[in-house]
Amino acid sequence: MIEKKAEELGRLIGQSDDYRAIERAREALKAANELRGQLTRLEYLAESFAKHHQEGTTPSDDEKGEYERLMSQIQGDSRYQQLVAAESNFDKLMHRVNQHIMKGVSTGATSQIITLS
């Protein structure tokens, strides 16, 4: 019974405006070849910086400058901003859902009546 209710909750979440907004934003990002390339390069630089940190070395000034330029360009892109906003709204929805689940768990744990249907 719990699994069935969980599937129903998942279906409802998947139909929510917040989830649909994330999907639209992800699709827009997939279509943005230049932005995807910038994100890939930024990820590469971040991994390179982590490697430098582990080795106790410092990235070059060129790498640092490129990282800052890419970060500025990406953050200024409206498609990226839409994805960030959609993810934030979805996270808020999931937080509220989790709060309601915990409230239900607390209520169920103190209930004297057992219902399994």
**Straight-line N-to-C gap:** 7 Å
| Helix-strand pattern | HHHHH
What would you report as the Rg, rounded to the nearest angstrom?
A: 22 Å
- Mean pLDDT, to the nearest integer, reads 93
Regions with little confidence, pLDDT below 50 for 5+ residues? none
- How does the overall form come out from the CA principal axes? elongated
Q: Please give the count of helices.
A: 5
Instruction: Report the β-strand fraction as a percent range.
Output: under 5%
Q: How many strands?
A: 0
Q: Strand pairing plus helix content: what structural class?
A: mainly alpha
Summarize the biggest pleated sheet: none
In percent, how helical is the residue content? over 70%
Could you explain how this protein is built, in words?
This protein has 5 helices and no strands. It has helices spanning about 1-15, 15-30, 35-55, 60-75, 80-110. The longest helix is centred in the C-terminal third of the chain and has 33 residues, at about 80-110. The model has no long low-confidence stretch (mean pLDDT about 95).
Which tags fit this structure?
mainly alpha; elongated; 5 helices
